[in-house]
Every structure is written in C-alpha cells, then in structure tokens.
C-alpha cells in the first residue's frame, strides 16, 4: 500500500532527503570501520616488527632466550587482541 501523496510533492522531498541522509550515514560508518581496521592492523604490524627485530637480537646474542620468549609472548597476546578487535569490526 502506498503512502498518500501530498499535492505539493513534499512527501517526495522528505523521502529523498531521508534516502540521502541514510546513504551519507552508511558511507560515514563504512569509512569509520575501514579507518579503525587500518589503525588496528598498523598496531598489529608494529608488534610483529618488534618481534622480528628482537629475534635478530636473540640470534646475534644481544638478548637471551628467556627475555625473547617473555616479550614475544606478551606481544603475541597484544596481536591476538588486535585480531579480535578487527573481527569485531
């Protein structure tokens, strides 16, 4: 069943405005989601870079195995949190 039309076309104007507002809102939400995922992915990558660099330090003998294992475990937990946050978006 169609909504009654006003003689002056105001219903069409209102409907058009609502559709435009919903589209803009959806675009804003989509952009926010992409930016949030990008920020979280950058954090994940930063911790991966730290683990990789620390591994080289371990191989070169600058840090011991226990320190590497402890810090790598901490940073992998942060990475898991990042992945969980990404999946929430």
3D architecture notes:
- 1% of the residues are buried.
- Helix 1 (10-59) packs antiparallel against helix 2.
- This protein has helices at 10-59, 65-88.
- It is mostly helical.
- The protein has one domain (24-88).
- The chain is 83% helix and 0% strand.
Strand segment count: 0
The assigned structural class equals: mainly alpha
**Main beta sheet:** none
Q: Give the amount of beta strand, in percent.
A: under 5%
**Between the first and last Cα atoms, what is the distance in angstroms?**
37 Å
Overall average residue pLDDT? 90
Low-confidence stretches: none
Number of domains: 1
Number of helices: 2
| Percent helix range | over 70%
> Using only CA atoms, what is the Rg?
25 Å
Shape: rod-shaped
The H-and-E topology, N to C, reads as: HH
What labels would you give this structure?
mainly alpha, 83% helix, 0% strand
Short description:
This protein has 89 residues and is mainly alpha-helical. The protein has two helices and no strands.
């Amino acid at each position: 069943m169609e909504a009654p039309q006003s003689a002056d076309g105001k219903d069409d104007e209102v409907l058009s405005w609502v559709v435009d507002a919903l589209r803009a809102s959806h675009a804003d939400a989509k952009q926010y989601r992409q930016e949030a995922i990008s920020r979280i992915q950058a954090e994940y990558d930063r911790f991966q870079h730290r683990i990789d660099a620390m591994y080289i330090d371990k191989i070169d003998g600058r840090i011991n195995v226990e320190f590497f294992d402890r810090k790598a475990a901490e940073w992998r937990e942060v990475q898991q949190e990042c992945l969980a946050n990404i999946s929430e978006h």
